[in-house]
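HUMAN: You are asked to prepare a plain-text protein record giving the amino acid sequence and the backbone structure tokens, both parts labelled.

ASSISTANT:
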Amino acid sequence: MNGDRFIPEILFEDNHLLVCVKPAGILSQADSSGDPDMLSLLKADLKVRYNKPGRVYLGLVHRLDRPVRGVMVFAKTDKCASRISAQIRERSIEKRYRVIVCGMIESPSGRLRSSILKDPGSNTASVFDPEDAPENAKESVLLYEVIDRSNIYSGPGRIPVTLLDVQLITGRSHQIRAQLADFGHPILGDRKYGGAEHFRGDICLECRSITLRHPIRNERMEFKVAAVDREPWTIFEKG
């Protein structure tokens, strides 16, 4: 923010796409709270920067949870929104996340597959074994790779933690948070899913990169953002 005006961190912009970094704590789109959201803030910024009269079009094609920082892609035309949404349905868009979880994960990599059911009332997701899931639960798959392991010192003492690179295969609401908690390794700082018992900092989950095809040129493009330069991210030598 600069005074009362939101100045976005833009990674890429042309006549078709706007790619930026969503700060932690800002909604992806407006809800009943009336709190600031990326879609409205970016529309207001475009209106000012380009002196646009009337309504500004900007298409929301995916979301990040409110406490999560990271790369977001917006469409500047209805045609582009439709084409990006098609890529999402085809699972041809690659989203990778930088995650710090509680505990030491010994295996160098792995795959989590389960079924997730979202409860809109509590705004939480429940994880089920696919064979025992309710009929309306959705298949959820992610891949993870261990980047580094370390310890942080908070509350009662030492907390072992693991830095992961996570790739979403499906894109369910709260998927990474719920699946990793069900795996026994909640995300550090996640107040909804058990990762904040001895750590009161922000949730350690960031969308570090998105790779997609440009909706007009069909060129493969990757957009990424570095980790924030503060603890606990800085305790790791890699990633």
Notes: The chain has a mean pLDDT of 93. The domain at 94-201 is CATH 3.30.2350.10 (Pseudouridine synthase). The two ends are 28 Å apart (CA to CA).
